[in-house]
């Protein structure tokens, strides 16, 4: 039998060094019979280019309709921070985060938008979702403007 992991909430924990070692925590959803949307905004996401080792920056928007679980925000902060020394392309980082969260909390629906700042003069936006939006769920626009530079 697997030992139950304890929540990181309310206690000091070490920063994870890699996304793989980071722990994502979940807590019971007290409104599990109600369809509603939760949004996490990550305006200062950083990772490393796997080729050059230079930093990459993104604005992430994570929206999900909870099922039986909610994503605990401190664990999300620690998970997101674990990418600071992780080398991966924009597409891999964005989809990896979405899949990991979906796997851990089993939401009714989840989407992630990765709005990456330009690298080599080209901004890259990456979008991933788990399936169809639950009927009747209000899903506001993510509200991140496309990159315009000085134009």
From TrEMBL:
Its EC number is 1.7.1.13. Substrate binds at residues 71-73, 90-91. GO terms for cellular component: cytoplasm. Its main location: cytoplasm. Pathway: tRNA modification; tRNA-queuosine biosynthesis. GO terms for biological process: tRNA queuosine(34) biosynthetic process. The active site is at residues 49, 56. Gene3D superfamilies: 3.30.1130.10. It catalyses: 7-aminomethyl-7-carbaguanine + 2 NADP(+) = 7-cyano-7-carbaguanine + 2 NADPH + 3 H(+). Keywords: Cytoplasm, NADP, Oxidoreductase, Queuosine biosynthesis. It is found in: Cytoplasm. It comes from the Bacteria. GO terms for molecular function: preQ1 synthase activity. Pfam families: QueF. InterPro entries: GTP-CH-I_C/QueF, NADPH_dep_7-cyano-7-deazaG_red, QueF, QueF_type1. It is an enzyme of class 1 (oxidoreductase). Belongs to the GTP cyclohydrolase I family. QueF type 1 subfamily. Catalyzes the NADPH-dependent reduction of 7-cyano-7-deazaguanine (preQ0) to 7-aminomethyl-7-deazaguanine (preQ1). This is NADPH-dependent 7-cyano-7-deazaguanine reductase.
């Amino acid at each position: 039998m697997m030992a139950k992991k304890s929540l990181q909430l309310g206690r000091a924990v070490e920063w994870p060094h890699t996304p793989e070692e980071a722990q994502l925590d979940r807590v019971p959803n007290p409104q599990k019979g109600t369809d509603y949307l939760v949004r996490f905004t990550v305006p200062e996401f950083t990772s490393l280019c796997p080729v050059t080792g230079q930093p990459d920056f993104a604005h992430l928007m994570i929206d999900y309709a909870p099922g039986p679980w909610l994503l605990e925000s401190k664990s999300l902060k620690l998970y997101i921070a674990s990418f600071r020394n992780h080398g991966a392309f924009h597409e891999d980082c964005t989809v990896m985060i979405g899949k990991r969260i979906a796997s851990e909390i089993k939401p009714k629906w989840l989407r992630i938008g990765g709005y990456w700042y330009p690298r080599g003069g080209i901004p890259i936006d990456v979008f991933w979702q788990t399936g169809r939006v639950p009927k009747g769920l209000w899903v506001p626009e993510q509200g991140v403007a496309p990159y315009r530079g000085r134009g």
